[in-house]
Here is the input.
Amino acid sequence: MPELTDAQLDQLIKDIGLKRPRGGSQRKPIAHGTFNGAQQHRYRKEEMCGPCGDAYRAYWRDQNAKRAARRKAARQYLTEEEWQAQQAARQGGGAQ
Ligand SMILES: [Zn+2]
Here is the structure.
């Protein structure tokens, strides 16, 4: 087989229809057992594997628990004055 010039090589690649693999995220291995891994399964329209499903559910359980706790705290403990004090503190940039 004779050596090809770059131009011939380009032409050959075009002729046989080689394509570069598309985009990064599709090609990355899935980080199984993490919330990100679960998102990757979803993105690829695959069914999640067990560990990813667990991580996914745990993530949302955690999120919901946090949200519920915040709501509960706000409802239970804050008077109008306290709420305003908290807002002022937040705007001062000293959260937690
Ligand atoms: Zn997985």
